[in-house]
Write a structure and sequence with these properties.
The N terminus and C terminus are likely disordered. Strand 1 and strand 2 form a beta hairpin. This protein is elongated. It folds into two domains: 221 residues, Fido-like domain (Fic-like fold); 99 residues, Orthogonal Bundle (Arc Repressor Mutant, subunit A), CATH 1.10.10. It has 336 residues and is mainly α. The chain is 58% helix and 2% strand.
Length: 336
Amino acid sequence: RSARIEGNRTTIDELVEAAVNGVSDSTEGLREISNLEDAMSWIESVFAEESHRRIDHSFLQELHRLTVKNLRPPEVGGEGDPSPGRYRSGNVAITGTSFVPPPGLDVQELMDRFISFINEPIDVRRSLMRIAIAHHRCAAIHPFRNGNGRVVRLLTYAMLIRDGYRIDQGRIINPTAVFCHSRADYMDGLSDADDGTEASNLRWCAFVLSGLRRELEKVGTLLDANILGPRILQPTLRFAVQSGQITDEMAQVLSRIAKNDDGDASTYRSVYPGKSAASISHIIADHKQIGIIAAYPTIRSRRYVARFSGPALLTALIHTMDAEGYLPFRRDDRGA
């Protein structure tokens, strides 16, 4: 989604196909998206080890290195950078805006001040406003030759995690959906904030915080079992059956497992009456192999959870999430 703001035209269907086939780097567009996923995972691992880690120069430079890894330089139409992980020393221009970033000779000093700003102690009630201001301020400095937008949005994600907007497992806040609801509004907001007035800064903060609230409300509904089942899981199973991705019996098993949070051999016997214990074991093994169930993620043996993100159900899940408005862009948009 961050790549989409930059003009990446990879479609969501291409992403799903790549995920199903395990080829995340077959094109430049897919490599760009894969880099962003790697960078988000790196951020999560860093703060898992040290929850209040200082975000310093090396942190931002590593984000940049991960972001532009194995991408062609802009001179040949790519989204890479010939100096990965290094601040620019020359001057740059931003396409599509009259704003001129500061000279390259000033970048190090400006980034020194920026690092101090984002790490100074602050009242938790003001942390979200600082995150919004930091997003624009880093974008305005434009510290790298290329890839600045992607790095800035990743920085926003890192600051959200550091300041407590996270869960123990999984990715509770989409790091860029806050800005992807409308690319035009995002770019206009950044441009407006370039004025540097109190009013323009407040408008930018309001834009970021309203986007964050929208994403948190989405997450809240997905964490509600009374909404998740009827609005997401059951429609996903129906679509998967209708499109021939799974059988009706598979859908029945998955529905019962999802409703009860997990299942075991007795769940299968209720759907496949008359099957022997050996046959049930074979069916369970087949379902694990095709990726629609997985072993319960603790020491509890021979219990299973439904796996909606596996190859057999991923397309159906994306279809349902799109229909319910949970994607930050429409599935039939030109790009991801």
